[in-house]
Amino acid sequence: MRARLLIVDDDELNREIVRGYLEDEDCDLVEAESGEQALRLLTAGDFDAVLLDRMMPGIDGVEVLQRMKEIPRLASVPVVFQTAAAALDQLTEGLRLGACYYLTKPYHRDVLVTAVHSVLDLGRQRRELRAKVAEYSGVMHLVDEAHFRYRSMEEGRALAAALATICAEPERAAVGLVELFVNAVEHGNLGVNFEEKARLLTAGQWLSELQRRLTLPENAGKVVQVWVSREADEMVVTIRDQGKGFDWHKYLIFDESRACYPNGRGIALARQIAFTTLDYRGCGNEVQVRLTAASGPGAHAPGAVDLPQVLGLKAGE
């Protein structure tokens, strides 16, 4: 299934330039010339990522992103901000709202293509995760206390999807849990640091390098352990890897110094959209999160929300 990218810009020339840059990429391009049109398209169909102009008349890019974050089905859709506004406070605002990239016009074609590749890959992963959540729904709602262990990112994603089904907002929970479960493997057990991941993502070598490191003798016995318990109306999830830890403090917030990197915002985004609390312990190789639990089978309905009301649109718009 081909990826779908929504291009949102009120300037027709800018949209034409972006089309030219991306015409050879393996994705379907859909265009919106206003924030209002973008929201209608987003609520009517599925997109893997959004390339969003910040400054538009009417509903601007900031408001589009804010409204997306209010809707479970859209909250995890990766967004690339593009704008001529490069002031520090504007840059910080976009990151705080959860944009994955911030591109300042004019930019080179290669910069745009790298950003689009990164968010489309992320979008595909989240679409697959959404399907897994639906598949596992109803399987684990009786869990009160459990202990799991996994070794690979694939196992971590599957476990995250299963655990998300016992949370009140499964799609948000799944995105947050996957971020922490993947971090525990790549940064914890396999020792890939921030700079290395940025370089590997840019070169398209991230997955192959992780597979290589998984086969190394020193990593053969490493696992990530996960403890899950129910406390009243909350699920408490504790994740512990066998790595050396990291300086986690700076990754809890959106930092403009990482705006041009393809990574480094996942923990802050997960904290913002998925968890009631997120607490790292010790050197950073253990983290505990709390999520609102579903009350029982059928207690949650992913995406069940009055979209026109949330978006502030009138019927028929």
Characterise the protein shown here.
The chain is of the alpha/beta class. The protein has 2 domains: 123 residues, Rossmann fold; 156 residues, 2-Layer Sandwich (Heat Shock Protein 90). The chain contains 12 helices and 10 strands. The radius of gyration is 19 Å and the shape is globular.
Write the layout of secondary structure elements.
Elements: E1 3-8, H1 12-22, E2 27-32, H2 35-44, E3 49-53, H3 61-69, H4 72-75, E4 79-83, H5 88-96, E5 101-104, H6 109-136, E6 145-150, H7 153-164, H8 170-189, H9 194-203, H10 206-214, E7 224-231, E8 234-240, H11 266-273, E9 277-281, E10 286-292, H12 307-311
Parallel strand pairs: 1-2, 1-3, 3-4, 4-5
Antiparallel strand pairs: 6-7, 7-8, 8-10, 9-10
